[in-house]
Design brief:
The longest helix has 19 residues. By secondary structure, this protein is α/β, with parallel strands linked by helices. Helix 4 runs parallel beside helix 19 and helix 7 crosses helix 19. Helix 8 links the parallel strand 7 and strand 8. The structure holds flavin-adenine dinucleotide. Flavin-adenine dinucleotide binds next to helix 4, strand 12, helix 11 and helix 19.
Length: 642
C-alpha cells in the first residue's frame, strides 16, 4: 500500500472533496519526458566528478579510548566505540551542523562528532539545475502534513509535501540555494520578543562572517558594505546568457508596471522591491556551494572532526536534567551510545529536532505520557509554533516559442545559465502598501516550452495534482510558462509537530493549521490577484500571455476574479515554499533561551531552523547558516575561547 494511502482525514463541511480528477491524455504523453531528463542527467554527470566527501568513522568494539588520540593514527578511519566521549555530539550533519562543525573544530582541543542519518550527497545535488530530482528520492525524508479537511485540495492526496534533506549537508544539499536574508525588521522582532542579542545589527555581522560575495557588480556598488568577502559561503548571481537576461529584464519591467520598485541588491535590508536572484554557487564552476561543500569539505582532515553516516540518533541521554550523550542506531542495526563531555547539540531540523526531544522525554507531558516516555522535562512548547512561508502558484504563459525549450534544456548542461528563477521580491498588499504584516514574496521561475523540469517541479516538488499540472503542462507544450510562487511572509496561523508513535524511525505528525487565522488567507489571496495582474502588463499583452487557470472544482462556481474566488484559489492551491520554522522556539517562555540552551536542562542546545521564533522574510537556509555562525561564537565565548 502506498504510504500516502494511510492519510486523508475528514473533509470539512464547507470544503468539497475532489481528490484526484481525470488524467489528461496530454499528461500520459508527457511522462515520457522523464527520459529526456535521464539523458540530460547522464550528459551533465560526465562533466562532474563527485567530491571526496569525509569518510564515516569506523565503528568497532574498542574499549573507551580517546578519539583524539585515535584520530592521529587513523585519519578517516578512526574508531567510534560505544561509550566513546566527544566534547560535542551534534545530531545531524545538515545546513546548521556543517557551519557548527567548521567553527567548533577550529578549537584544536575540542573533539566534535556529527551523527547523520543520511549518506553522501549524490551528483544530482552538485548540479544546481537538477535539484528537483532529489525530492522524493532516498535523500529526502519526504514528510507530509496531515490533511486538515479545508486546504490544499489541489495537491496530490491533499497533503503538503515537506521535502527535507537526509544526507551530509541536509536540506542545504537539495534546496534551491537562493541567497536572501530578508528585511531587518524580522530580526529586530526576535530581540523585541526577549531574545537578547538577536537583532539585525548582530545578525548582519554573522551573515557577513559566513559570506563570500563574488558578484562584481555588488562589490563595486554602494551596497558592498552589507556583504562579506572572507566567509565560506560563495554567493553570486548567475552569469546569464542573452535569453535569460532578456527574460529577467522583462519580468522586472512587468513588476515595475505593477507599481513596484526595482532593487539592484536584494540583500540590503529594504523591505519592498523586486530584483534578480543571488545563489550559493561555486565561483568558477556552476556547482552547488551548499554548507556541506563550503564548510565541511575543506575541514574534512581536521583531526578533531568525527562523522558517523547512516546513523540515526534515537534518544538524547540524560542524567537527571543534564544531557550526557546520545543513543544511536547504526545502519547495521546495532545500537551504541556516545557521551558528550561538554554538550549535545540538537540540529536535526524543524521536524526531527522536536520529535527527538519528545522521544527523549522533553516535551508536552500529555504527549510523553500517551507514548509511555519517561518525562525528563515537561515543556508544552516543544513542537508548537510551527509556521511556514505558504505559497500558491500563479502560472502565466509567456511567448509562443517552441525553440525556447532547447534553451531551457540546454541550461542544465550549460550551467552558466542556471538557475531558472528569474526574479524575486517583496510587495505588500492591502490599503496600506507598507503594511509589514501583509508582506508577500514572489519568486518567478521561467520554463521554456515543453520543459521536463516544469513537469518535475509541478508534480514532484510542489506536489500539485494531475488536474493542475495537466493544465500547466498543456499550456507549456508550445509556450513558455512563468511559474510564480506567491508566498505569505508573516503568517499569524500556527501549527504543530508532535509524535505519531514512540518509534524513532516513524515520521513525526505534522499539523499545519495553515489558515487558522482568516487574515492569512485574505493576504495570500490578494497577493495571488496582484501577481495574476502581470498579464495586464505590456510584455504579456504583446505576447498574448494568459493566466493558466487550473480547473478547481472547489472554486469554479465562484465569480472568476472576485475576492471570494481568489480566497478559494489561495486556500486550495496552498503549499510550502520549504521554509518551515519555529518548533523549538527561542523565547523566554519557549524551548531555548537566547544562547540556544534548552530552558530547564543543562549541557544541551538546539541550533537549526526550529529555533526561529518568527520567520523573517529571507530564505531559511541563508538564515540558518547565520544562526549557526552566531551559535558557534556564543559557545566559544562561554568556554572563554576568543
Ligand atoms: C526544496 C527546498 C528548497 C529550498 N530552497 C531554499 C533556498 O533557495 N534558499 C534558502 O536559503 N533556503 C532554502 N530552503 C530552506 C533551507 O534549505 C532549510 O531551511 C535549511 O537547510 C534547514 O537547515 P537545518 O539545519 O535546520 O536542517 P537540515 O539542513 O534539514 O539538517 C538536518 C539534518 O539532520 C539530519 N537528521 C535528522 N534527524 C536525525 C537523527 N535523528 N539522527 C541523525 N541525523 C538526523 C538530517 O538527515 C539532516 O541532514 C529550501 C528547502 C527545501 C527543502
Amino acid at each position: 500500500m502506498d504510504i500516502l494511502d494511510k492519510t486523508v482525514g475528514a473533509v470539512g463541511a464547507d470544503c468539497t472533496d475532489h481528490l484526484l480528477s481525470d488524467t489528461t491524455n496530454i499528461l500520459s504523453n508527457l511522462t515520457s519526458l522523464s527520459s529526456v531528463e535521464s539523458i540530460l542527467l547522464a550528459a551533465t554527470a560526465l562533466t562532474y566528478l563527485a567530491p571526496d566527501w569525509p569518510k564515516s568513522s569506523k565503528i568497532d568494539n574498542f574499549p573507551k579510548l580517546s578519539p583524539t588520540a585515535l584520530g592521529i593514527f587513523f585519519r578517516n578511519s578512526f574508531f567510534v566505540a560505544g561509550g566513546t566521549c566527544f566534547d560535542f555530539v551534534i545530531v545531524g550533519a545538515g545546513d546548521a551542523d556543517c557551519v557548527l562543525a567548521r567553527r567548533l573544530t577550529e578549537v584544536a582541543g575540542w573533539s566534535v562528532l556529527l551523527v547523520e542519518a543520511g549518506g553522501d550527497p549524490p551528483i544530482t545535488s552538485d548540479i544546481p539545475g537538477l535539484f528537483n530530482l532529489l525530492a522524493r528520492s532516498r535523500q529526502d525524508w519526504a514528510f507530509y502534513a496531515e490533511y486538515d479537511g479545508c486546504t490544499s485540495q489541489a495537491l496530490n492526496h491533499r497533503r503538503v509535501a515537506h521535502t527535507r534533506g537526509k544526507m551530509i549537508g541536509g536540506s542545504g544539499c537539495l534546496n534551491h540555494i537562493q541567497y536572501l536574508r530578508g528585511g531587518s525588521r524580522g530580526y529586530d522582532e526576535w530581540e523585541a520578543a526577549g531574545n537578547e542579542g538577536w537583532n539585525w545589527e548582530n545578525c548582519l555581522k554573522y551573515f557577513k562572517k559566513n559570506e563570500n560575495m563574488t558578484d562584481k557588480n555588488i562589490l563595486n556598488s554602494s551596497t558592498k558594505s552589507y556583504h562579506g568577502i572572507n566567509g565560506p559561503s560563495i554567493i553570486k548571481s548567475p552569469s546569464v546568457n542573452n535569453y535569460f537576461y532578456e527574460k529577467e529584464f522583462m519580468m522586472l519591467k512587468a513588476f515595475e508596471e505593477l507599481g513596484e520598485e526595482i532593487k539592484e541588491d536584494p540583500n540590503v535590508p529594504d523591505e519592498i522591491g523586486q530584483s534578480r536572484e543571488f545563489f550559493q554557487v561555486m565561483d568558477q564552476k556552476p556547482i552547488r556551494a551548499c554548507g556541506a561543500r563550503t564548510n565541511l569539505l575543506p575541514i574534512k582532515n581536521r583531526k578533531n572532526l568525527y562523522l558517523l553516516k547512516h546513523a540515526l540518533v534515537t534518544k538524547i541521554l540524560f542524567n537527571g536534567t543534564v544531557a550526557t550523550g546520545a543513543e544511536i542506531i547504526l545502519s547495521t542495526g546495532e545500537k551504541i551510545e556516545v557521551c558528550a563531555n561538554k554538550e549535545v547539540i540538537v540540529s536535526a531540523g524543524v521536524f526531527k529536532s522536536p520529535q527527538l526531544l519528545m522521544l527523549s522525554g522533553v516535551g508536552p507531558c500529555e504527549v510523553l505520557e500517551k507514548f509511555n516516555i519517561p518525562v525528563v522535562l515537561d515543556n508544552p512548547k516543544v513542537g508548537r509554533n510551527f509556521h511556514d512561508h505558504i505559497f500558491a502558484a500563479i502560472a502565466v504563459t509567456g511567448e509562443l516559442n517552441p525553440a525556447t525549450s532547447l534553451d531551457a534544456g540546454l541550461s542544465l548542461i550549460d550551467l552558466g545559465t542556471f538557475p531558472l528563477p528569474l526574479t524575486t521580491g517583496l510587495f505588500s498588499v492591502g490599503e496600506n502598501s507598507t503594511d509589514y504584516s501583509a508582506l508577500i514574496r514572489h519568486v518567478s521561475f521561467l520554463f521554456g516550452s515543453l520543459s521536463p523540469i516544469l513537469y518535475y517541479a509541478c508534480f514532484v516538488n510542489f506536489n500539485y495534482n494531475e488536474t493542475v499540472c495537466g493544465a500547466i503542462l498543456k499550456a507549456n507544450l508550445l509556450r513558455e510558462v512563468i511559474f510564480n510562487n506567491v508566498a505569505l511572509m508573516n503568517p499569524k496561523s500556527r501549527g504543530y509537530v508532535t509524535l505519531k508513535s514512540a518509534d524513532p524511525v516513524d515520521d513525526p505528525l505534522i499539523i499545519g493549521n495553515t489558515f487558522d487565522v482568516e487574515s492569512d488567507l485574505e493576504i495570500l489571496a490578494e497577493g495571488c490577484q496582484h501577481v495574476h495582474d502581470l498579464i495586464q502588463t505590456t510584455h504579456f499583452k504583446k505576447v498574448d500571455g494568459y493566466f493558466i487557470r487550473p480547473p478547481l472544482p472547489e472554486c469554479d462556481s465562484l465569480d472568476f476574479g472576485s475576492k471570494s474566488y481568489w480566497k478559494c484559489y489561495a486556500r486550495v492551491m496552498a503549499t510550502t515554499l520549504y521554509e518551515p520554522v519555529g518548533t523549538c522556539m527561542m523565547d523566554p517562555n519557549g524551548v531555548v533561551d537566547s544562547n540556544l540552551k534548552i530552558h530547564g536542562l543543562e549541557k544541551i542546545r538546539v541550533v537549526d531552523a526550529s529555533i526561529i521564533p518568527k520567520s523573517p522574510t529571507g530564505f531559511m537556509g541563508t538564515v540558518v547558516q547565520m544562526i549557526a555562525e552566531r551559535a558557534a561564537d556564543i559557545i566559544k565565548k562561554e568556554y572563554c575561547i576568543e
